[in-house]
Amino acid sequence: MEKQKEELILELINALNNRDLERFREDFFEFHPIDQIEIFLTLDTEQRKILYSFISPREFAEIFQEMDLKLQKDVILELEDNYLIEMFNEMANDDLADLLEELPPDSIQKIIKDMDIEEAHEVKSLLTYAPETAGALMTTEFLAYKSTDTVASVLERIRQEAPDAETIYYLYIVNELDLLVGVLSLRDLIIAPLDKKIEDVMAIHVVSVNVDTDQEEVAHIIKKYNFLALPVIDNLGTLLGIITVDDVIDVLEEEATEDFAEISAARGAVDLEISPLVAARKRLPWLIILLFIGMVSATIIGRFEKVLETVAILTIFIPLIAGMGGNTGTQSLAVVVRGLALGEFDKEKVIYLLKREAITGVIMGTVCGAIVSILAQVIFGGNLVLGLIVGISLFFTIIVASLSGTIIPFIIHLFKIDPALASGPFITTINDIIGILIYFSIATKLLKFL
């Protein structure tokens, strides 16, 4: 199948090079827009110019809005102004608004000024909403009908209006004041008697979100109800737009990337397009903070200098104790951050998780403590006390690390801060300190037996 696809692409490019318009269009539009983008990326500048002349702005809009931001910016520079503006007029207004948010203000003003008045108005309205809210995420291209309309009249209007809508799987029903009063699936509309009024066949319990709702909460609602789209209303209940599942997938990817960056203490620095200087500037603050926190470890070790002078062999196990504590805490952190991000926790589940992590810590601490205790004795000449010091220290370190990795993100969450800020490096550094403190405290108590 892949080989056949490659052969078709080669034929397609040959048709392009030979300026065979009919053959190119016939083959090109057999591909999915994502495949069309892959083909587009194989073309050089001259070939792209030919492609633009072969494809209308409306057709290219379908491809362009599936491109990533970097490619879109490159393509904008290649297109003639008239073609570009006409393509913008044909794009889904939410996709265009997302693009314009990334452009310089003067470019935004010029584009909006040159666009069709109606399209420009819709895009400008979307740009007024706060970033990462339902308003910024929604599209105003949806199907809405009056509750007093008949099934027959709505079916007739759908045939005319569907091409301009983002999705037609749900029809949203409003009253004479444009307040959202119901929803109707396309399936239910098709099987309903033609003479019935919409208010007689619609569902009146509509799940919706306010225009100011955070985009992450929107994603949770769509996931919870398994919706393909979700209506957006204002404080009065007026229907303003809809959010489709494809936009939510983008949100989930964005939120996952953000959480990954938080957990690795690299917020804002995961973008491959930024320069080394910018990446360093974004990552250094966390590293400097962690550096100062890490100095606590050095201070603790300094306080136990006499212990180390007496039994220097204890220094060998410092990295092991600190490392295992950090690793254990990061595992617990991952569980909590995921659960908080997905909204899975209530009071009962929090208590259950704390109990579970405590028991898990005891089990892991027992197993790892026993293993390291035996290994320490085998490697260092059967020194039973040394094995006990290292094993017991690791046992308590893992238990404490499991609990700290669970509790810290919950505490941060209570202060309305992203729990991912309890990042891996932060948890690791805290547990380094705790582990070393436990290790030397136990070593001091048992020092006389070494």
Beta fraction: 5-15%
Strand neighbour order, sheet with most strands: 1-2-3
CATH top level class name of the largest domain: Mainly Alpha
**How much is the radius of gyration in Å?**
30 Å
Q: Determine the fraction of residues in helical runs and give it as a percent range.
A: 55-70%
CATH superfamily of the largest domain: SLC41 divalent cation transporters, integral membrane domain
Mean pLDDT: 86
Distance between the termini: 70 Å
CATH architecture of the largest domain: Orthogonal Bundle
Fill in the keyword field for this structure.
450 residues, MgtE N-terminal fold, CBS-domain, Tetracycline Repressor, domain 2, 3-stranded mixed sheet, 67% helix
Short description:
With 450 residues, the protein is mostly helical. Helix content is 67%, strand content 6%.
Blueprint of the fold:
Layout: H1 2-17, H2 21-28, H3 33-41, H4 45-54, H5 57-64, H6 69-78, H7 81-90, H8 93-100, H9 105-114, H10 117-127, H11 134-137, E1 144-146, H12 151-161, E2 170-174, E3 180-185, H13 186-191, H14 198-201, E4 209-210, H15 215-225, E5 229-233, E6 239-244, H16 245-263, H17 276-303, H18 305-310, H19 318-341, H20 347-379, H21 384-414, H22 424-446
Parallel strand pairs: 1-2, 4-5
Antiparallel strand pairs: 2-3, 5-6
Describe the overall structure:
The chain has helices spanning 2-17, 21-28, 33-41, 45-54, 57-64, 69-78, 81-90, 93-100, 105-114, 117-127, 134-137, 151-161, 186-191, 198-201, 215-225, 245-263, 276-303, 305-310, 318-341, 347-379, 384-414, 424-446; strands at 144-146, 170-174, 180-185, 209-210, 229-233, 239-244. It is mainly alpha-helical and 450 residues long. It has three domains: 2-137, Alpha Horseshoe (MgtE N-terminal fold); 144-259, CBS-domain (Roll); 276-449, SLC41 divalent cation transporters, integral membrane domain (Tetracycline Repressor, domain 2). The chain has a three-stranded mixed β-sheet. Strands 4-5-6 form a three-stranded mixed β-sheet. The longest helix is centred in the C-terminal third of the chain and has 33 residues, at 347-379. The chain starts with a helix and ends with a helix.
